[in-house]
Amino acid sequence: MANHHYVPRFILRNFNEKISIFNLKTKELIFNKNLRNVFQENDLYSEDIENMFNRVIENDVAIVLRNKILVDSKHIEITRKELILLRKFLLLQMFRTNIGLSGFTKDMINKYRLIAKEPPIHFNEIMEISNLNDRDYWLATLKCIIECDNLTNLKTVKTATAIAVCFAEGYNSGYMGIWDSSECGEEFIVMDQGMTSEHEKSTPDYMYKDAMKRGYLLEKLENNHPNKHIYAKMFIENNLFHENFYFHSISKNRIIVLINPFFRLYNPKDAEVNKYKFEPPNIRPTNIYDLSITENNSASYKNQGNYSLDDVFKYKIKQLSLRDAIYVNALTLDRIHNIVGFSELKNIRRSLITYNHIGQYRLKNYDALVENIEQLGYNSHLTNELKLYAKSFTTQIITSDEISYIKKFIELMEGK
Questions:
Q1: Which residue, of 36, 46, 125, 307, is most buried by count of CB atoms within 10 Å of its CB?
Q2: Which InterPro entries match (predicted)?
Q3: Confidence band (pLDDT; 50, 70, 90) for 268?
Q4: What's the confidence (pLDDT) of residue 204?
């Protein structure tokens, strides 16, 4: 039997040479497991898919991460070719887990076949699926993503699946950020789901975040804003990417984030925002406290007016506050299916303690892991600071403007 990692070992090594895991079902805590034996499953993929992961994706991604994304620097630069590769890799990380496979039911497949046909995607899947079982369709989804040269071209590929195209459109809509937790000292965790997002049921207002953003954009369009073409583009992009953020942990102190295009409006340095003199929105559709971390990258084009694989994108590594690092971990803890991994328990203890204080809004129970923190002699005290963090994750004052935007979008959806 072949040992297939759904979290690549080159990612796990960025946490530690050995990794500790906690099993949510059995409540078992195991320290310092060999990387060969974690976040893997025997014969998860077909042999050709596993070979393609190694040959086409993982070797090159490992080099980009090691030589550029993870370097100890306040700024990094990557080429368009490398950015295209990273987007493909991140999308694959979401699909390739054993949990991802379990979601490929006939109902799910047919749902996305219908979604893909509608605007703004306009994709009609031609693959005959009547004779495919769920696993075969899942493998076909992985394969079409690996084989495409660019996610933007995926829907022109004859073997593309509808679910791959739908999520590729979302991953292409977002812009990338690189966030770091080194200064605040709280480490990130490894999850068995591949990706988490800020659109979770642990926040009681989660269903309104999307409506708030789109209602704001809708008002700009209805009022015939002089630069409404930009707002129209963002409105369409929010149809494809309704979450605020996609989080992918790539080391114990660094995550790659795909950010909803709406957040460009909060960044006066953004080239398009600056050009058209947009005012920052008078709404806050996120529980991330420091919106400066959503700053967009800058770009240097090799041939002005034409895209080139050699274009360079410049990123500033954004340092998270302790509060925001814990919040990202709380979202991740919500999304864990069964296995949570980490470098050192003491360096995620504040996240676990805060998460446990969320109460009825938490989706998972980590009481047993918090008890281990106490037994090992680490500080497990729920400080006033952590209490405030927990409260801020689940409490948000909605302003009258935000309510009006939410109502506007709901009325649109109800056809009023």
A1: 125
A2: DUF4238
A3: confident
A4: 55
